[in-house]
Amino acid sequence: MSYTPETLQLLAPDGTRVVSDATEAYLPYVDALTEQQLREFYRTMRVIRRFDIEAGNLQRQGQLALWIPSLGQEAAQVGSGFAARAHDHIFPAYREHAVGHIRGLDVVQIIKMLRGLTHGGWNPAETGNFHLYTLVIGSQSLHATGYAMGVRFDGLVGTGDPEKDTAVLVYFGDGATSQGDVNEAFVFAQSYQTPQVFFLQNNHWAISVPVRVQSRTPLFHRPRGFGIPSQQIDGNDVLMSYAATAASLDAARAGEGPQFIEALTYRMGAHTTSDDPTKYRDDDELHYWQERDPIARFEAYLRGLGESEAFFTEVAEEAEQFAAEARARTLALEPPSAESMFAHVYSEPHPVMDAQRQALADFEASFEGGA
Fold first, then answer.
1. pLDDT, mean of residues 65-75
2. What is the reported pLDDT for 369?
3. pLDDT of 211 strictly over 90
4. Dehydrogenase E1 component domain: from which residue to which, for each copy (predicted)?
5. Over 60: is that where the pLDDT of 370 sits?
6. pLDDT at position 119, please?
């Protein structure tokens, strides 16, 4: 299942601008972007792709248990990630590395989690309201909807104050749309008119199950049955991703209720490093999407605007340095202390945790030589 007549697009695969009546309403969002913002879109996509590849290499070399690649989905993530305001809240699935990076997450935190060195991830208050990765498929849609209900109960919607009005952005994949959690989230979101945007990254494969098997109709039609406005965009077009998400977030903050975006993209790598996509995917399909690579497309666009060769060289060097630093920091990681397992079970000191901490200390001390 690929592009449809309703797919919104601002950049063609060759990097040229697409003009159509369907996207006219989004042009003000794109026209307002500065040259520096456009450069940052490209820089983030290139840097995160290089990091992503390096993290996969580290897993193959035994440095972490698993890696979840985002190769090919950079435009969907970077465009939507930059569309959110600082006080918005973002609930990812588990491959939104670019979005986390945009929000201030140290990407080595992702490596630490998948290396088994943390007890869940990071503190969203310290990562630009970027919440924890969720490995239970689709459950983050309910977390986001519950949070968005709270935002509405707190009166942080429709005030007209851009520093106050808040939206929630939740990411999930095409496979998650087959889960009950996502559909239940639609029910509550529409019932409570939550200020949130459901952002579906349709990368065409739920591990080895193609989207055409999951759904006989385009996935963006589903939320319409719940009364949620929806649209389908070219997820490999960073400008379209940015503009559609910015517009949807504006509508959500204004009190217009939940919005839904289906971003058509492609998972060019494996589902995770435990997966072998050559067993279920053919080369023709992969080649089709490689020709629509989101980074190559945007680079062609920037070159058409007159961007200098020096800029692209600088970004390539920055990406290499970023990946090298991530590798060095990964190799230097040490196991957490046993004490850490008791630290954040409860928000306040708790006698049960104190007792368990002491029991462990006594047990270790019982061995010859002490702990």
1. 96
2. 64
3. yes
4. 43-306
5. no
6. 84
Q: Where does the chain have alpha helices with state H? A: 27-31, 35-60, 74-83, 97-102, 108-114, 139-153, 180-192, 211-214, 238-253, 283-290, 294-304, 309-331, 351-365
Tokens representing 229 are: 């406005």
**Spacing of C-alpha 170 from chain mean position:** 8
Of the pLDDT bands very low, low, confident and very high (cuts 50, 70, 90), residue 344 is: confident
Domain-by-domain residue ranges, the chain? 21-336, 337-371
pTM of the model: 0.95
For the 21-336 domain, the top CATH level (class) is alpha beta
Q: What are phi and psi of 61, to 5 degrees?
A: -95, 10
Percent of the chain with pLDDT over 90: 92
Q: Tokens in use for 105?
A: 């997450």
The DSSP code sequence of 178-220 is GSHHHHHHHHHHHHHT-SEEEEEEE-SEETTEEHHHH-SS-GG
Crossing angle between the packed helical segments 180-192 and 139-153, to the nearest 10 degrees: 10
**CA-to-CA separations, 331 to 54, 59, 69, 112, 152, in angstroms, rounded:** 12, 11, 19, 11, 44
In the structure encoding, which two tokens stand for residue 5, read together? Answer: 């007549």
DSSP string computed for 40-71 = HHHHHHHHHHHHHHHHHHHHHTTSSS-----T
Q: Which residue has the tokens 């270790």?
A: 364
Residue 120, helix vs strand vs coil: coil
Rounded CA separation 248/241 (Å): 11
Sheet holding 89-91, edge to edge: 89-91, 168-173, 196-202, 259-264, 230-234
SS3 category, 262: strand
Q: How confident is the model at residue 89 (pLDDT cuts 50, 70, 90)?
A: very high
Q: Which residues contact 190 (CB under 8 A, 6 or more apart)?
A: 226, 227, 228, 257, 258
Average pLDDT, the chain: 95
Q: How far is CA 53 from the centre of its chain?
A: 17
Beta carbons of 197 and 141 less than 8 angstroms apart: no
